[in-house]
Amino acid sequence: MSHEHHHQEGKHQHADGEHSPSCSAGHHHGHSHGQGNHGHDHGHHGHHHHFDMSGNKTGLFIALIITAGIMVLEFVGGLVTNSLALLSDSGHMLSDVSALVLSLVAVWFAARPASAVRTYGFHRFEILAALFNGVTLVVISVFIIWEAIGRLFDPPSVASGSMMVIAAIGLLANLASAWALLRKGDVHNNLNVRSAYLHVLGDALGSVGAVLAGLLIYLFDWNIADPIISIVVAVLIVKSAWGVLKHTVHILMEGTPVNVDEQEVRAALGELKGVVDVHDLHIWTITSGLDSLSCHLQVADGTDCQKVLQTAIALVEERFGIRHSTIQVESSSIRHMELQV
Question: Do the beta carbons of residue 293 and residue 326 sit within 8 Å?
Fold first, then answer.
């Protein structure tokens, strides 16, 4: 993490105070709660971040129950009708069930409090769950494409009528699951819930494909429609999964949140009255909806450091939406060893 050097820097606090009494308290880490003079005393345990996870949990649970039931129906139906489109859809459903279970576990983990060993708690588990879900989507889609290519050259006969009925039931169930996640969960901002939502949408797409394939086979006897549509659906699912994978890897690599411009933050802090330099600025995401910032502000000697600190905390929260900030205010007498990052 980007805090690894603060302990070493803390050794300079008192030396700084000898030169500039107004800056003697300027090293306090300001967490943005509207109080600039509370320093280290409250620690991380005094300000847990409460997210409304109950809606996410409800949405995921409803989607899980529906998906598990339809998965069994489509798997049996695929075997009976000899339809790859149905079997591939039940394969996606299987990945959905595991994805939804994992997402529920992640929500439960994220609600657990921080500890001395894990000072950020288990919030990152949600990102790991989203990463795993994205990977499983890609793996299953590649498997379906491989199987479908084999069937292209010798498409087997398919019981199209039964296939369409089962796929239509699957489609309705997928739409019900997606609706539950949209209504109850935070699909737009929570990466974990969004990855589960993409799984469900992928299944809905698979069900549409299976209905279409069944219709083409029923009307025109085009058995080749089954593997062709399976490939198209699998490619579309890979495309959506790729977006989730990119986002999760970006978070795990401590990348700057996509909704925050690092240069803009640096410029805004540099424009504060008394600030002469902004350095060691780090902005990263802990989990969906929880961004963090740490930086050092060098101020002109004689400046009221606590006032600068309070202004910086308010700026970061109000303008950039970052509520978890750690800001170190320094005078010209502070010298750092060379930092790695």
Answer: yes
